[in-house]
TrEMBL record:
<protein>
    <submittedName>
        <fullName>Uncharacterized protein</fullName>
    </submittedName>
</protein>
<keyword id="KW-1133">Transmembrane helix</keyword>
<feature type="transmembrane region" description="Helical">
    <location>
        <begin position="7"/>
        <end position="31"/>
    </location>
</feature>
<dbReference type="Pfam" id="PF01130">
    <property type="entry name" value="CD36"/>
</dbReference>
<comment type="similarity">
    <text>Belongs to the CD36 family.</text>
</comment>
<dbReference type="GO" id="GO:0016020">
    <property type="term" value="C:membrane"/>
</dbReference>
<keyword id="KW-0325">Glycoprotein</keyword>
<dbReference type="InterPro" id="IPR002159">
    <property type="entry name" value="CD36_fam"/>
</dbReference>
<dbReference type="GO" id="GO:0005044">
    <property type="term" value="F:scavenger receptor activity"/>
</dbReference>
<keyword id="KW-0812">Transmembrane</keyword>
<dbReference type="GO" id="GO:0005737">
    <property type="term" value="C:cytoplasm"/>
</dbReference>
<keyword id="KW-0472">Membrane</keyword>
Length: 96
């Protein structure tokens, strides 16, 4: 009637369907609680802020975005003759 592979696929499909239905209803309840729990600054017994607050105040890395702007020096040759573009760097910006 059914092969072992078809039965295994059916069982896996039913388990995935049940898990997705359960997560559909429980995720909106559980996730906000997890976010609030992880974002709170917890005080130590002596009143000082914990390690997570220290890491938020002084992050371990600096986010620097670099932008490079180029000028095409041969636009006519590139468009009409199909030549490779010759680029010259005009400015480079770094934003923190």
């Amino acid at each position: 009637m059914f092969t072992k592979g078809e039965i295994a696929s059916l069982i896996i499909g039913v388990v995935c369907l049940i898990a997705s239905i359960v997560m559909f209803f429980t995720f909106p309840i559980i996730y906000p609680q997890m976010v609030v729990k992880n974002l709170q600054f917890i005080q130590n017994n002596d009143g000082s802020l914990g390690y997570s607050a220290l890491k938020m105040a002084n992050p371990p890395m600096r986010n620097i975005m670099k932008f490079y702007f180029f000028n095409i020096t041969n636009p006519d040759e590139m468009v009409y003759e199909g030549a490779q573009p010759r680029l010259s760097e005009t400015k480079a910006y770094a934003v923190m």
